[in-house]
Automatic annotation (TrEMBL):
Residues 23-127 form the Serine acetyltransferase N-terminal domain. GO terms for molecular function: serine O-acetyltransferase activity. Belongs to the transferase hexapeptide repeat family. NCBIfam families: cysE, EPS_EpsC. This is Serine acetyltransferase. Pfam families: Hexapep (PF00132), SATase_N (PF06426). SUPFAM superfamilies: Trimeric LpxA-like enzymes. It catalyses: L-serine + acetyl-CoA = O-acetyl-L-serine + CoA. It comes from the Bacteria. Pathway: Amino-acid biosynthesis; L-cysteine biosynthesis; L-cysteine from L-serine: step 1/2. InterPro entries: Hexapep, Hexapep_transf_CS, LbH_SAT, Ser_AcTrfase_N, Ser_AcTrfase_N_sf, Ser_O-AcTrfase, Serine_acetyltransferase, Trimer_LpxA-like_sf. One of its GO terms (cellular component) is cytoplasm.
């Protein structure tokens, strides 16, 4: 069990330190129970959780284990995570918020140990956090290597220059593409096969800006330097080419406003079913 103190690391609040301790205690309990229940995975539970020193260390070690290969071994990636965590006080709280988002929003997830060990969406986000830290630190080649490696392992292609907030939930994650000048604010949920891309060969600021609380449904494409207003909902399969006001539901190809979202934060509600009223608002021509 982690011993909590009243002294938080530099740049980290006392509340964040306490949350990390709570997460870590629960993860250790779940790992101990899993170890007893299935000895076939004993090495995974021991190496990934029971032999680690903290929640952040466990996340870094597990993601590094999945990314490591002959070119860049896992222990070097774990060392890079340790550098990033020491150099940027925002990364550890983002780890915490991201895993909490999975528990809160994924009905198939009942234990913290599940995203920590198995969920590639959670792993892809943490890989990007490391790659982004390397990018802004001027270590571009290593950042691009991690982007490529993440694409290979987790089937997500997130440019290391893209900016992510915390509390991000990637459900399934397969096929996600995020361009270099994209911004994703706090508490956003994104399903599989989503593209946050440009509209062609333009240079400069050319990718979407997704504000807090947005949910983007499976297969949606958002193209260009446009803002997706806070707490909006982008329906599955939609193609969004124009800015979206806050609290707006967008659907169709090309997407158009079909109503308000009907809840304060679609990213937390995770309701992807459009109402009958919304369906009736479409005017199809055969």
């Amino acid at each position: 069990m982690t011993i909590m103190t009243d002294i938080a690391p530099i740049g980290v609040t006392k509340a964040e330190t306490q949350l990390s301790g709570i997460l870590w205690e629960r993860l250790q309990q779940e790992a101990e129970a899993a170890f007893v229940n299935d000895r076939a995975l004993a090495a995974l539970f021991v190496n990934s959780v029971l032999n680690r020193s903290s929640f952040e260390d466990a996340v870094a070690h597990r993601v590094a284990a999945r990314l490591g290969n002959e070119t860049v071994p896992a222990h070097l990636i774990a060392d890079l995570f340790a550098e990033a965590l020491a150099g940027d006080a925002s990364i550890a709280p983002a780890f915490q918020a991201d895993i909490a988002a999975v528990i809160e929003r994924d009905p198939a997830c009942e234990r913290l140990i599940e995203p920590l060990l198995f969920f590639k969406g959670f792993h892809a986000i943490q890989t990007h956090r490391l790659a982004h830290w390397l990018w802004v630190s001027g270590r571009n080649d290593l950042a691009l290597y991690l982007q490529s490696r993440s694409s290979e392992v987790f089937q997500t292609d997130i440019n290391p220059a893209a900016r992510f907030g915390k509390g991000i939930f990637l459900d399934h994650a397969t096929g996600l593409v995020v361009g270099a000048t994209a911004t994703i604010d706090d508490d956003v949920s994104i399903l599989q096969d989503v593209t946050l891309g440009g509209t062609g060969k333009e240079r400069g600021d050319r990718h979407p800006k997704v504000r807090r609380g947005v949910m983007i449904g499976a297969g949606a494409k958002i193209l260009g330097n446009i803002e997706i207003g806070s707490c909006s909902l982008i329906a599955a399969g939609s193609v969004v080419l124009n800015p979206v006001p806050p609290n707006t539901t967008m659907a169709g190809v090309p997407a158009r406003a079909v109503g308000t979202t009907g809840c304060a934060e679609p990213s937390r509600n995770m309701n992807q079913i459009l109402s009958q009223l919304v369906y009736d608002s479409f005017n199809y021509t055969i």
